[in-house]
């Protein structure tokens, strides 16, 4: 079963013409919340929770809130700051689902990307095996050609030796016959 190496190379080249072909089935997983307005804003909001800017801003707001109520400038939330506690609870109630949704969608994207990468590695391994098979076939053909060349060289050497032997025999035969023929002929 020998196959043409050029055919195998052209098949491999045509099947790998698009380097992102494994990622096309997961292209719809673009952003964590979809591509609509709410989804884009929700993702930005969820990403903002882990930034230093958010932590600094929240710390400043809480500090100002407590200072204004303890100093007596405003009296809308006195100690034990129940309204502030309610604000934190409300923030946590909205933040937690957004963050969990973002993590779930990111996990789905990561899994889809790892599946696509696994398919890509399998395709690379298959192409590598095909190249190794082609190289093995070519090596076997070269070895066969070398064997045939060796046989032909040996035959040529034997024929050359045989021609040399026959030439020597013919030469000695002709040299032995020539003086006898000269004696046998009458001189006139």
Plain-language structure description:
- The chain is an all-alpha fold and 188 residues long.
- It has one domain (23-183).
- The chain contains four helices and no strands.
- The chain has helices spanning 5-15, 37-48, 52-70, 82-184.
- Helix 2 (37-48) packs across helix 4.
- It is rod-shaped, with a radius of gyration of 46 Å.
- The model is unreliable at 1-16 (pLDDT under 50).
Task: Kindly summarize this structure in a few lines.
This protein is 77% helix and 0% strand.
Give short descriptive properties of this protein.
4 helices; single chain; mainly alpha; disordered N terminus; 188 residues
Unreliable residue runs: 1-16
Chain-averaged pLDDT: 80
Q: What is the tally of helical segments? A: 4
Largest sheet: none
Terminal CA distance: 79 Å
Number of domains: 1
- Approximate strand percentage: under 5%
Which sequence of SSEs, written as H and E, runs from N to C?
HHHH
Q: Pairing-aware structural class of the strands and helices? A: mainly alpha
Shape: rod-shaped
How many beta-strand elements?
0
Could you give the topology of this structure?
Elements: H1 5-15, H2 37-48, H3 52-70, H4 82-184
């Amino acid at each position: 079963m020998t196959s043409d190496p050029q055919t195998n190379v052209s098949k491999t080249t045509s099947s790998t013409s698009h380097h992102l072909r494994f990622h096309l089935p997961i292209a719809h997983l673009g952003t964590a919340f979809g591509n609509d307005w709410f989804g884009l804003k929700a993702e930005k909001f969820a990403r903002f929770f882990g930034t230093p800017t958010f932590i600094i801003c929240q710390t400043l707001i809480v500090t100002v809130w407590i200072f204004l109520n303890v100093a007596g400038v405003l009296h809308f939330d006195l100690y034990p700051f129940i309204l502030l506690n309610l604000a934190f609870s409300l923030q946590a109630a909205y933040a937690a689902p957004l963050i969990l949704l973002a993590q779930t969608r990111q996990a789905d994207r990561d899994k889809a990307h790892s599946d696509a990468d696994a398919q890509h590695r399998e395709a690379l391994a298959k192409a590598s095996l095909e190249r190794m098979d082609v190289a093995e076939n070519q090596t076997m053909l070269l070895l066969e050609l070398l064997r045939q060349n060796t046989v032909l060289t040996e035959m040529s050497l034997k024929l050359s030796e045989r021609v040399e032997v026959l030439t020597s025999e013919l030469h000695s035969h002709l040299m032995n016959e020539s003086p006898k023929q000269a004696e046998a002929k009458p001189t006139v």
